[in-house]
Design goal:
Blueprint: H1 7-10, E1 11-14, E2 19-22, H2 31-38, H3 41-56, E3 69-73, E4 78-81, E5 86-92, E6 97-105, H4 113-135
Parallel strand pairs: 2-6
Antiparallel strand pairs: 1-2, 3-4, 4-5, 5-6
Length: about 140
């Protein structure tokens, strides 16, 4: 049976245009939230600033420079918020939500094999989210 975290735990910011959520697994784990909570306060604030900027801007005008937000995987439509040296992978939904799936600390200019594995996890998480939403088992009724 799925574990549903309470909304106050998985909703990071409910903005004017987008709602930003932490992706959670069937057992209620939130990988990106765990990484976020381990960050120093300054890095947490920087991610929140980027999230709020995206979520509160009028639709179509939410452009951040590629140094702060960029498309990482065009095939799977995975983006990354880039607060300092960390990358928070995410995707958007038709319901105007941004789902933060997982994160990692960048160690070099180019993505390493381990970084690409984290990106693959994000794509798998996106597919899991879409399947569970279709089945009606992601959000608690």
């Amino acid at each position: 049976m799925p574990q549903y975290p309470p909304p106050e735990e998985f909703i990071l910011h409910d903005g004017l245009t987008f709602r930003v959520e932490w992706y959670y697994t069937d057992d209620g784990e939130m990988p990106a939230r765990g990484c976020y909570l381990e960050l120093p306060e300054g890095d947490q604030m920087r991610l929140l600033y980027l999230v709020k900027f995206m979520a509160d801007r009028p639709f179509g005008s939410n452009r951040l420079p590629a140094t702060m937000y960029r498309l990482e995987d065009a095939e799977n439509k995975i983006y990354a918020f880039k607060p300092h040296a960390h990358r928070f992978f995410n995707f958007t939904t038709e319901g105007r939500a941004i789902i933060l799936t997982n994160a990692y600390r960048k160690h070099s200019k180019k993505m390493t094999k381990q970084d690409l594995e984290k990106l693959a996890i994000s794509a798998t998480s996106r597919q899991d989210y879409l399947r569970r939403v279709r089945e009606g088992t992601y959000y608690e009724n």
